[in-house]
Design a protein that fits this description.
Arc Repressor Mutant, subunit A, five-stranded antiparallel sheet, three-stranded antiparallel sheet, 8 helices, about 25% strand, WYL_dom, DNA-binding, DNA binding
Length: about 290
Protein backbone atom coordinates (compact mmCIF):
# COMPACT_ATOMS: atom_id res chain seq x y z
CA UNK A 1 0.00 0.00 0.00
CA UNK A 2 1.36 3.41 -1.01
CA UNK A 3 2.21 5.98 1.65
CA UNK A 4 -0.86 8.21 1.84
CA UNK A 5 -0.20 10.74 4.59
CA UNK A 6 1.00 13.39 2.11
CA UNK A 7 -2.24 13.32 0.10
CA UNK A 8 -5.16 15.66 0.88
CA UNK A 9 -7.99 13.70 2.47
CA UNK A 10 -10.47 14.32 -0.37
CA UNK A 11 -7.99 13.07 -2.99
CA UNK A 12 -7.19 10.01 -0.91
CA UNK A 13 -10.90 9.20 -0.48
CA UNK A 14 -11.45 9.40 -4.24
CA UNK A 15 -8.45 7.22 -5.01
CA UNK A 16 -9.73 4.68 -2.51
CA UNK A 17 -13.17 4.58 -4.08
CA UNK A 18 -11.63 4.11 -7.53
CA UNK A 19 -9.68 1.10 -6.28
CA UNK A 20 -12.54 -0.40 -4.29
CA UNK A 21 -15.08 -0.29 -7.12
CA UNK A 22 -12.59 -1.38 -9.77
CA UNK A 23 -11.41 -4.35 -7.71
CA UNK A 24 -14.71 -5.58 -6.27
CA UNK A 25 -17.24 -4.57 -8.93
CA UNK A 26 -14.90 -4.88 -11.90
CA UNK A 27 -15.52 -1.38 -13.26
CA UNK A 28 -15.21 2.29 -12.33
CA UNK A 29 -16.77 5.18 -14.24
CA UNK A 30 -16.65 8.94 -13.96
CA UNK A 31 -20.37 9.03 -13.21
CA UNK A 32 -19.91 6.74 -10.18
CA UNK A 33 -17.13 8.95 -8.86
CA UNK A 34 -19.13 12.12 -9.53
CA UNK A 35 -22.20 10.80 -7.75
CA UNK A 36 -20.24 9.61 -4.71
CA UNK A 37 -18.43 12.91 -4.18
CA UNK A 38 -20.88 15.35 -5.76
CA UNK A 39 -18.39 16.55 -8.37
CA UNK A 40 -18.80 17.25 -12.07
CA UNK A 41 -18.07 14.71 -14.79
CA UNK A 42 -14.96 16.52 -16.03
CA UNK A 43 -13.52 16.69 -12.54
CA UNK A 44 -14.25 13.01 -12.03
CA UNK A 45 -12.58 12.12 -15.33
CA UNK A 46 -9.56 14.19 -14.31
CA UNK A 47 -9.38 12.33 -11.00
CA UNK A 48 -9.34 8.95 -12.79
CA UNK A 49 -6.57 10.20 -15.10
CA UNK A 50 -4.55 11.33 -12.10
CA UNK A 51 -5.05 7.99 -10.41
CA UNK A 52 -3.86 6.15 -13.53
CA UNK A 53 -0.68 8.24 -13.55
CA UNK A 54 -0.03 7.16 -9.95
CA UNK A 55 -0.86 3.50 -10.67
CA UNK A 56 -0.34 2.95 -14.43
CA UNK A 57 -0.56 -0.87 -14.22
CA UNK A 58 -3.97 -0.96 -12.53
CA UNK A 59 -6.72 0.22 -14.90
CA UNK A 60 -7.51 -0.03 -18.59
CA UNK A 61 -10.48 1.42 -20.47
CA UNK A 62 -13.00 -1.10 -21.80
CA UNK A 63 -15.11 0.25 -24.66
CA UNK A 64 -17.76 -2.45 -24.34
CA UNK A 65 -18.32 -1.72 -20.65
CA UNK A 66 -17.83 2.05 -21.03
CA UNK A 67 -15.59 2.26 -18.02
CA UNK A 68 -12.21 1.37 -16.58
CA UNK A 69 -11.64 -2.22 -15.51
CA UNK A 70 -8.80 -3.76 -13.47
CA UNK A 71 -5.87 -5.19 -15.37
CA UNK A 72 -4.32 -8.53 -14.47
CA UNK A 73 -1.47 -6.55 -12.93
CA UNK A 74 -3.81 -4.65 -10.57
CA UNK A 75 -2.27 -4.02 -7.16
CA UNK A 76 -4.01 -1.84 -4.54
CA UNK A 77 -2.06 1.30 -3.80
CA UNK A 78 -4.44 3.27 -1.56
CA UNK A 79 -6.48 0.45 -0.04
CA UNK A 80 -5.67 -2.91 1.49
CA UNK A 81 -7.54 -4.91 -1.12
CA UNK A 82 -9.81 -6.47 1.50
CA UNK A 83 -13.47 -7.14 0.87
CA UNK A 84 -14.37 -5.42 4.15
CA UNK A 85 -13.48 -2.09 2.53
CA UNK A 86 -15.98 -2.62 -0.27
CA UNK A 87 -18.74 -4.08 1.85
CA UNK A 88 -18.35 -1.39 4.48
CA UNK A 89 -18.64 1.20 1.75
CA UNK A 90 -21.87 -0.41 0.57
CA UNK A 91 -23.21 -0.31 4.09
CA UNK A 92 -22.28 3.26 4.88
CA UNK A 93 -22.75 4.68 1.38
CA UNK A 94 -21.20 7.91 2.57
CA UNK A 95 -17.72 7.07 3.79
CA UNK A 96 -14.89 4.74 2.92
CA UNK A 97 -13.53 3.59 6.23
CA UNK A 98 -13.71 6.38 8.73
CA UNK A 99 -14.22 10.12 8.18
CA UNK A 100 -10.73 10.52 9.64
CA UNK A 101 -8.94 7.71 7.79
CA UNK A 102 -5.66 8.92 6.32
CA UNK A 103 -5.58 12.24 8.16
CA UNK A 104 -2.51 11.18 10.10
CA UNK A 105 -3.97 12.16 13.47
CA UNK A 106 -2.17 10.26 16.18
CA UNK A 107 -4.24 9.08 19.15
CA UNK A 108 -2.20 8.12 22.18
CA UNK A 109 -2.87 5.29 24.60
CA UNK A 110 -5.50 3.45 22.59
CA UNK A 111 -5.50 -0.06 21.19
CA UNK A 112 -7.94 -2.12 19.13
CA UNK A 113 -8.06 -5.87 18.82
CA UNK A 114 -7.22 -7.06 15.29
CA UNK A 115 -9.75 -9.59 14.03
CA UNK A 116 -9.03 -12.22 11.38
CA UNK A 117 -9.99 -11.22 7.86
CA UNK A 118 -11.68 -13.86 5.73
CA UNK A 119 -9.88 -14.43 2.46
CA UNK A 120 -12.36 -13.69 -0.31
CA UNK A 121 -11.95 -13.68 -4.07
CA UNK A 122 -12.80 -10.38 -5.78
CA UNK A 123 -14.19 -12.37 -8.71
CA UNK A 124 -16.63 -14.20 -6.41
CA UNK A 125 -17.83 -10.97 -4.82
CA UNK A 126 -18.23 -9.31 -8.24
CA UNK A 127 -20.40 -12.18 -9.47
CA UNK A 128 -22.61 -12.07 -6.36
CA UNK A 129 -23.03 -8.29 -6.49
CA UNK A 130 -23.89 -8.33 -10.18
CA UNK A 131 -26.41 -11.15 -9.76
CA UNK A 132 -28.07 -9.45 -6.78
CA UNK A 133 -28.46 -6.20 -8.69
CA UNK A 134 -29.78 -7.82 -11.84
CA UNK A 135 -31.88 -10.62 -10.26
CA UNK A 136 -29.79 -13.31 -11.92
CA UNK A 137 -29.36 -16.98 -11.11
CA UNK A 138 -25.86 -18.22 -10.34
CA UNK A 139 -24.43 -21.70 -10.62
CA UNK A 140 -22.06 -22.10 -7.68
CA UNK A 141 -19.98 -24.72 -5.97
CA UNK A 142 -20.44 -24.28 -2.24
CA UNK A 143 -18.81 -26.06 0.68
CA UNK A 144 -20.71 -26.73 3.90
CA UNK A 145 -20.50 -29.08 6.88
CA UNK A 146 -22.75 -31.51 5.01
CA UNK A 147 -20.60 -31.23 1.87
CA UNK A 148 -17.14 -30.00 2.94
CA UNK A 149 -15.67 -30.77 -0.48
CA UNK A 150 -18.30 -28.58 -2.14
CA UNK A 151 -21.45 -29.28 -4.14
CA UNK A 152 -23.09 -27.59 -7.10
CA UNK A 153 -26.12 -25.42 -6.46
CA UNK A 154 -28.09 -22.72 -8.21
CA UNK A 155 -28.85 -19.66 -6.12
CA UNK A 156 -30.46 -16.24 -6.58
CA UNK A 157 -28.59 -13.81 -4.27
CA UNK A 158 -30.24 -10.64 -3.00
CA UNK A 159 -28.25 -9.14 -0.06
CA UNK A 160 -24.71 -9.18 1.29
CA UNK A 161 -24.67 -9.24 5.09
CA UNK A 162 -21.96 -8.71 7.71
CA UNK A 163 -22.87 -10.45 10.96
CA UNK A 164 -21.10 -12.21 13.83
CA UNK A 165 -17.69 -11.40 12.38
CA UNK A 166 -18.14 -12.78 8.88
CA UNK A 167 -19.78 -11.93 5.55
CA UNK A 168 -22.50 -13.99 3.94
CA UNK A 169 -24.98 -13.59 1.12
CA UNK A 170 -28.71 -14.10 1.57
CA UNK A 171 -29.99 -16.04 -1.43
CA UNK A 172 -32.75 -18.30 -2.70
CA UNK A 173 -31.49 -21.87 -3.09
CA UNK A 174 -33.17 -23.79 -5.90
CA UNK A 175 -32.06 -27.13 -4.45
CA UNK A 176 -33.85 -26.58 -1.13
CA UNK A 177 -36.50 -24.20 -2.48
CA UNK A 178 -35.99 -21.66 0.30
CA UNK A 179 -33.86 -18.69 1.28
CA UNK A 180 -30.56 -19.42 3.00
CA UNK A 181 -27.34 -17.78 4.15
CA UNK A 182 -24.16 -18.62 2.22
CA UNK A 183 -20.80 -17.72 3.77
CA UNK A 184 -18.69 -15.86 1.21
CA UNK A 185 -15.46 -17.67 2.05
CA UNK A 186 -17.05 -21.06 1.27
CA UNK A 187 -17.66 -20.53 -2.43
CA UNK A 188 -15.39 -22.71 -4.55
CA UNK A 189 -14.46 -21.37 -7.97
CA UNK A 190 -16.15 -18.35 -9.55
CA UNK A 191 -19.98 -18.38 -9.70
CA UNK A 192 -21.33 -18.52 -13.25
CA UNK A 193 -24.42 -16.63 -14.40
CA UNK A 194 -27.16 -18.89 -15.73
CA UNK A 195 -29.92 -16.51 -16.73
CA UNK A 196 -32.65 -14.50 -15.08
CA UNK A 197 -34.30 -15.83 -11.95
CA UNK A 198 -37.22 -18.17 -12.37
CA UNK A 199 -40.32 -16.91 -10.62
CA UNK A 200 -40.17 -14.35 -7.83
CA UNK A 201 -37.20 -15.01 -5.58
CA UNK A 202 -35.85 -11.51 -4.95
CA UNK A 203 -35.52 -9.68 -1.64
CA UNK A 204 -39.13 -8.50 -1.52
CA UNK A 205 -40.42 -12.09 -1.68
CA UNK A 206 -38.16 -13.33 1.10
CA UNK A 207 -40.86 -13.23 3.79
CA UNK A 208 -38.48 -14.04 6.65
CA UNK A 209 -36.15 -11.27 5.53
CA UNK A 210 -39.04 -8.80 5.47
CA UNK A 211 -40.04 -9.75 9.04
CA UNK A 212 -38.68 -7.55 11.84
CA UNK A 213 -38.69 -8.73 15.44
CA UNK A 214 -37.70 -7.25 18.81
CA UNK A 215 -34.95 -8.95 20.78
CA UNK A 216 -35.38 -8.04 24.45
CA UNK A 217 -32.31 -8.38 26.66
CA UNK A 218 -32.12 -8.00 30.44
CA UNK A 219 -29.40 -8.45 33.06
CA UNK A 220 -28.93 -12.02 34.24
CA UNK A 221 -31.56 -12.30 36.96
CA UNK A 222 -29.24 -14.43 39.12
CA UNK A 223 -27.07 -11.36 39.77
CA UNK A 224 -27.58 -9.23 42.90
CA UNK A 225 -29.59 -6.06 42.31
CA UNK A 226 -26.56 -3.76 42.49
CA UNK A 227 -24.76 -5.80 39.83
CA UNK A 228 -27.86 -5.85 37.63
CA UNK A 229 -27.94 -2.04 37.79
CA UNK A 230 -24.28 -2.05 36.69
CA UNK A 231 -25.09 -4.21 33.66
CA UNK A 232 -28.03 -1.95 32.78
CA UNK A 233 -25.65 1.02 32.69
CA UNK A 234 -23.06 -0.91 30.65
CA UNK A 235 -25.58 -1.65 27.89
CA UNK A 236 -27.55 1.59 28.08
CA UNK A 237 -30.73 -0.22 29.08
CA UNK A 238 -33.94 1.65 29.74
CA UNK A 239 -36.28 0.42 32.45
CA UNK A 240 -33.98 -2.56 32.85
CA UNK A 241 -34.26 -3.66 29.21
CA UNK A 242 -32.36 -3.37 25.94
CA UNK A 243 -34.51 -3.87 22.85
CA UNK A 244 -32.88 -4.62 19.50
CA UNK A 245 -35.06 -4.54 16.40
CA UNK A 246 -33.68 -6.62 13.56
CA UNK A 247 -34.69 -8.84 10.67
CA UNK A 248 -35.77 -12.33 11.67
CA UNK A 249 -32.89 -14.19 9.93
CA UNK A 250 -30.38 -11.91 11.69
CA UNK A 251 -31.61 -12.50 15.25
CA UNK A 252 -29.15 -15.33 15.96
CA UNK A 253 -26.28 -13.31 14.49
CA UNK A 254 -27.21 -10.29 16.62
CA UNK A 255 -27.18 -12.39 19.79
CA UNK A 256 -23.84 -13.98 18.96
CA UNK A 257 -22.33 -10.57 18.17
CA UNK A 258 -23.08 -9.29 21.67
CA UNK A 259 -21.95 -12.53 23.28
CA UNK A 260 -25.26 -14.26 24.01
CA UNK A 261 -25.53 -17.90 23.01
CA UNK A 262 -29.27 -18.69 23.07
CA UNK A 263 -28.53 -22.42 23.28
CA UNK A 264 -26.16 -22.26 26.22
CA UNK A 265 -26.31 -20.61 29.64
CA UNK A 266 -23.15 -19.95 31.59
CA UNK A 267 -23.23 -21.48 35.08
CA UNK A 268 -21.59 -18.31 36.44
CA UNK A 269 -23.97 -15.29 36.18
CA UNK A 270 -21.08 -12.82 36.04
CA UNK A 271 -19.88 -14.60 32.91
CA UNK A 272 -23.39 -14.63 31.41
CA UNK A 273 -24.27 -11.00 32.39
CA UNK A 274 -27.30 -10.68 30.07
CA UNK A 275 -30.10 -13.00 29.02
CA UNK A 276 -33.01 -13.07 26.60
CA UNK A 277 -36.29 -11.91 28.12
CA UNK A 278 -38.55 -12.96 25.22
CA UNK A 279 -37.02 -16.30 24.31
CA UNK A 280 -40.38 -17.92 23.48
CA UNK A 281 -41.19 -15.21 20.92
CA UNK A 282 -37.83 -15.74 19.25
CA UNK A 283 -37.86 -19.53 19.19
CA UNK A 284 -38.24 -19.80 15.41
CA UNK A 285 -35.24 -17.51 14.85
CA UNK A 286 -32.67 -18.84 17.31
CA UNK A 287 -32.28 -22.45 16.19
CA UNK A 288 -28.99 -23.51 14.59
Amino acid sequence: MTETTSLPWDILARYRLIEILALWEGRITASQLGTAFDIGRQQAQKMIRQYRKQAPANLIYDNSRKGFIPQDTFQPCYTLGKVEEYLHFLGSNTQLDSPFAGLGIGVANTESLPLPSRQLSPAVVRALVKAARQNERLEVNYASFRAPEGEDRIIVPHTLVFAAGRWHVRAFCEKHQDYRDFVLSRFRDIPEACGAMLGTHDQTHDQDWQTYVDVCLIPDQRLPEAERRLIEADYGMEAGRLVLNCRGPLVLYALLTIGVNPNHSEPEPRAQQIEIANRAELSEWIHW
